[in-house]
Amino acid sequence: MMPMRGALWLAAAGLALAVAGTQPAEAGKRLPSGSAEMRLSFAPLVKRAAPAVVNIYARRVVRSAPVSPFFNDPFFRRFFGEDFSFGRPRERVHNSLGSGVVVRPDGLVVTNHHVIKDASEITVVLADRREFDAKLAGSDERTDLAVLRIDPGGETLPHLEPRDSDDLEVGDLVLAIGNPFGVGQTVTSGIVSALARTAAGISDFGFFIQTDAAINPGNSGGALVSLDGRLVGINTAIYSKGGGSVGIGFAIPSNMVAMVVDSVDRAGRVVRPWIGARTQDVTPAIAASLGMPRPVGAIVRKVYPGGPTDRAGLRVGDVILAVNGRGIDDRAGLQFRVATLRLGATADLEVLRQGRRRTLEFDVIAPPEVPPRNVTELAGRHPFSGAAMADLSPALAEELGIDGVERGVVIVEMRRGSTARRLGFRRGDIVLGINGREPRSVAGLQRLLAAGIDRWRISLLRDGKAVSLVFGT
Fold first, then answer.
1. Which residue has the higher pLDDT, 80 or 434?
2. Which of 114, 193, 212, 240 is catalytic?
3. 146: nearest Cα among 266, 272, 264, 267
4. Active-site residue among 144, 318, 329, 429?
5. Domains and CATH numbers, the chain
6. Which of 53, 2, 26 is CA-nearest to residue 159?
7. Is 193 a catalytic residue?
8. Torsion angle in degrees (nearest 10) through CA of 322, 328, 330, 332
9. pLDDT at position 185, please?
10. What is the 3-state secondary structure (H, E, C) of 416-441?
């Protein structure tokens, strides 16, 4: 479970499914007309949806560090006995329980990344209690989604078809299906209480469906189902002070789920679209300065030269208001809309420029691997000794979860116990300057470090902020 404010517990969200013959929700939304309709049951819907929701058992081996070196001494071993393991590295088996959803009849299953993270063995248990060993097809920490494959031996499995999560409205009825607390499959009902919620700490794409359907620990990866019988979300977290449901749960929208599934199925990994622009939220002060009636959208701070939106005519200072006609409230909304676009297609940006709205069309592409990364581990008497450095490209920036419009040299890894690690450098740090000089490549950085000086003034870009460090040898 992951804390947020009081406490944010990773849990499962559910899918809402409808019975065959039920009218689409958008075509027949209305209040019950009488007591007879108030007595209607979700049972037919549950019978169709529940078989597609599975239990996920993940097994991982954790090695603990020795507490004291004295118990490796023969004297202490003789005194305490050979079976006494205090002070030696120990291996412990951790088992975790979550939920998942079969999204394709051939055995493709979606769950949360945090459910199967670092697992050495994964078992999927169907609603009819059959067990299957699962293989990890792909996992994406940034969206907290993972895709598993099981082999049903040619059988067509019950599965849930995704629905366009953008069609959801606040007040729509939904069901949450999962396995809370390991007690077995349960179903709860509720409504969509909010859309486009930002819940910090769950994933990099904080754009969630909020529901009051009861979700508890163990529901992670379960289904959020709408009354037209399709998957609208994967339950992933709850807001709670004690670990139980208080009526505030979060689900990853099905449009994001579909993007991850399609990308993993096609490329074996998640490849997200890239627009080549850095933005920030429009604050009330910015909105007032631009003559906007309210703060909405994302203002462009930097455009990557030659990138897709640069070729489309996007400029610094433009305010992006919508993507393909879908309005955005802030930078998080823009990230979500771009992440769910289809690679190879074209998309429209509605922007505000000098008080006038205009539409720009850009190509939806994957982040390019330009320049090549040229990963090099550095050695010598300098602060970066033991760090693996690379030339930063948009593709590498996407992998590291950092700004994709920057250029330069980035730290991709550090050896344990190395000088770079001891000095507090971090994976993803971008080197802006060494003693006032900018290294434009790994080769350029090596030349600057070869100077053999006694005092190093280093400028970094870390999490979007400039950091200055001084070291003496």
1. 434
2. 114
3. 264
4. 144
5. 1-266 (2.40.10.120), 277-363 (2.30.42.10), 376-472 (2.30.42.10)
6. 53
7. no
8. -100
9. 85
10. CCCHHHHCCCCCCCEEEEECCECCCC
Report the DSSP pairing between strands 53-64 and 90-104.
antiparallel
What whole-number distance in Å separates Cα of residue 276 and Cα of residue 303?
Answer: 6
Does 67 have pLDDT greater than 90? Answer: no
The residue with tokens 């670990």 is 243
CA-based torsion, 167, 171, 177, 182: positive or negative: positive
Residue recorded with tokens 């490209």: 393
Find out whether 71 and 84 touch, Cβ atoms under 8 Å.
yes
Residues with Cβ within 8 Å of residue 339, at least 6 apart in sequence: 143, 205, 256, 259, 272, 273
Total residue length of the chain? 473
| pLDDT 10s digits, 325-351 | 999 999 988 999 999 999 999 999 999
Q: What's 307's DSSP letter?
A: S
The percentage of residues in the chain with a pLDDT greater than 90, rounded to a whole number, is 61
Q: Give yes or no: 94 in active site.
A: no
Q: Which of 220, 226, 254, 393 is catalytic?
A: 220
Radius of gyration of the chain (CA): 26
Among 425, 391, 386, 388, which residue's Cα sits nearest to residue 409? 391
The residue behind tokens 């792909």 is: 138
HSE-up of residue 405 (Cα within 13 Å, Cβ side): 18
Q: How far is CA 376 from CA 268, 369, 392, 410, 439, in A?
A: 26, 16, 12, 11, 14
Q: What is the mean pLDDT of residues 394-402?
A: 91
Confidence (pLDDT) at 1: 37
Model pLDDT, residue 179:
83
Residue-wise pLDDT tens digits, 10-28: 443 333 333 333 344 445 5
CA separation for the pair 167, 154 (Å, rounded): 34
Cβ–Cβ < 8 Å for 223, 230? no
Active site residue 144: yes
